[in-house]
DNA sequence: CTGTTAGCGCGTTCAG
DNA sequence: CTGAACGCGCTAACAG
């Protein structure tokens, strides 16, 4: 900026005024400065601006996702970006890869860079360390997974309720031998789904046929499903804990001796649509939109008590949960 | 920091030293300062640090993706993050949503925040405006799409060559009536694929059966495919320009009177794997890794001429391109 | 081992 | 309409 000022024979302050479109500047001076700005390739230093302007928002929010490669979070982030862009805010995204330590590092970076607000999908089990940051004025909203002992807003889907919905749908079709295929419930949301699954069966006076929590990926799910269906006393219906298991489970069902075994999965996906797999869908974009709206209402000065928003899930029947088996289906209209 | 210094009765510089683990400090003083840091919830102000330490890297790179919701870019970003994390760098991601203006805004934000380097999947047709930023010392690597008139590194997949590979595979199976289904080639990579498609047919003394560039999404592709296959003179093989069309096209083929019509798609996807669709695969993670390696070599002081790395594509036969049609297949081992 | 001085690049305040 | 001086929070260089 000094250089530009010198080159245009004005003071730094005048350059600053030109950059900020301050109106009362002679056109001749303005254009001379602008020319030098272009010629020298000057860019205002965001660090210096952020340092000088304490209090005023910097115009950027941060999103910490657990896993960017997961289409669910990708959709959520995309919705957040949309809200944020509409407000002329920049959205910076980082992902922890489900690693709590990396999450803490990244959150620290966000806070240190003094972003105006954060939306967090946390892979951590504790959040006390964020308490000081709240006081510094960083607004935080938790999405998809609740905060532990931290008074902040959060937006969640009704996981337990969604699993219950799936089981009740299968019960309504007459199924009594219903198995759960998923992974070890270390993560809060997975725990909720398993809880809802069990609760719905208990309420009907039944017990789970099987609960398999060793299906970490689609191939493990394929094996688990094949084993279940090959057994003497095979289940007549399967509940897939998450959308990453659908491919393996659907294929295993199609290859088995019981290709009409019912399948309902938690969370929608392109694959489920094409294969005609019935799902209990959350709306990732709604999750993101709500979280962003909540964050911006805080940035706008809403100081009310932390809110917790629970979004309902929707059962989408496509055939696999209604006795028509798994197969290639026409695209949804 | 002033507050911490006052509370611990030391100078600010001593606090700074404690924060940075400067070794020569009395343990008693160190722990006293640390206690006050915790008590007051102090966080170093990254803006101030970045402002003072010019020259030294700030430890963060930026990634501008065209569309975060696209699994291809999600995988690429994930690979970049992995390289970056291994170097103890923070990765900040933003996405332009294929909007050139938003891309420019976001890049400006990155540059202003003085990130150490950028990896860009550009939706813009011009990049001259970045030239000044290069001089400021921001290192830029283009990924997936080449820069226009900007002397920077870039990593690309062999799009034209990949399309050629697909066509030759189909020619090898005896197909002569091969149709292209895709979208309008506004984007560089799509243009390259169409070019490779035409070139391969021309080289064999053939012309495309049809070139449809109106398939913007999976449903449009479903319609286009259905129309093609219902015609008197239907093609015997289809080339899908991108992985988002696979669901619609596979379903249309399965529903048609010619369910064994061959299908080869550009880019791999989970869906293609499960449906047994033959693809010409690029490796998004390799793209990210190479781009990140290139960027970090620049940060390490490599001043050689800009490089252009072209990554080869791989033909993955799964049945749909080899006369076995489209159907549910076992998961890949 | 610790404190003092100066200044990173910019915006704010107050004078011209 | 424009400029000079000051300070944001922190660290490099130099003293003690």
Automatic annotation (TrEMBL), chains A, B:
Annotated coiled-coil segments of the chain: none
Keywords: DNA-binding, Transcription, Transcription regulation
Keyword set includes Cytoplasm: no
Domain HTH lacI-type: 1-53
InterPro entries, alphabetized: HTH_LacI (IPR000843), LacI/GalR-like_sensor (IPR046335), Lambda_DNA-bd_dom_sf (IPR010982), Peripla_BP_I (IPR028082)
UniProt key word Kinase: no
Molecular function via GO: DNA binding
PANTHER family: HTH-TYPE TRANSCRIPTIONAL REGULATOR GALS, LACI-RELATED TRANSCRIPTIONAL REPRESSOR
Protein's name in the database: LacI family DNA-binding transcriptional regulator
Organism, as annotated: Amycolatopsis ultiminotia
